[in-house]
Design brief:
The chain is of the alpha/beta class and 181 residues long. Helices cover 33% and strands 18% of the residues. The protein has helices at residues 28-43, 57-70, 87-95, 112-120, 128-135, 168-171, and strands spanning 2-8, 50-53, 77-78, 103-108, 142-147, 160-166.
């Protein structure tokens, strides 16, 4: 059994229309979401043997802020292929993991992370958490998948069960979607 945790970057700042997508930082709400999720991970006592992350600015900032809230820092494998990757690319990256660590945290972007959940967790109606992902996998969301594999090289469609799905609004309603009047 392998554990795969997924963490979508926190809400990004769109105020500079000239900024390249890769260089967009997180905004104030994103900082609050990263802190809340970092505390949640600490309280859940999750541990990761390996962290693979997109090197995009908003991902790096999310990790930095969340790590402070976790109360620890981690060595990170920055991999450009995670940036805006498809589910197929993310599965290929997971299959390439050396040393077969028990738990991996992947920090990246949508739609790749969301699609990865759809590919790994069977659509058989038995997972209310998968159904929640179908509605939305918002920024700063944290998910844990239990993968019925012995080696990362064996990861494939339908091999996982989604055991945790935490959105920032689950921790603080003020971090939920902005309501329009």
């Amino acid at each position: 059994m392998k554990t795969l945790a997924l963490f979508r970057h926190a809400k990004s700042d769109w105020s500079d229309a000239r900024a390249r997508d890769f260089d967009r930082p997180i905004n104030a709400r994103g900082k609050r979401g990263a802190i809340a999720m970092g505390r949640h991970v600490r309280e859940g006592c999750w541990r990761f043997d390996r962290i693979i992350a997109s090197p995009a600015v908003r991902v790096a900032q999310t990790i930095e802020i969340a790590s402070k809230a976790w109360g620890r820092s981690f060595p990170i494998d920055w991999d450009r292929r995670v940036y805006l990757a498809s589910s197929a690319t993310l599965i290929d990256l997971l299959r390439e993991i050396d040393g077969d660590p028990a738990s991996v945290l992947m920090v990246g972007h949508n739609p790749g992370l969301e699609d990865l959940i759809f590919d790994l967790v069977p659509e058989d109606g038995s997972s209310p958490l998968r159904a929640a992902v179908e509605q939305k996998f918002p920024t700063a969301t944290f998910a844990v998948l239990e993968c019925a594999i012995d080696r990362w090289a064996d990861i494939d469609h339908g091999c996982a069960r989604l055991s945790v799905l935490t959105r920032p609004r689950d921790l603080d309603p003020a971090l939920g979607p902005e309501l329009l009047d």
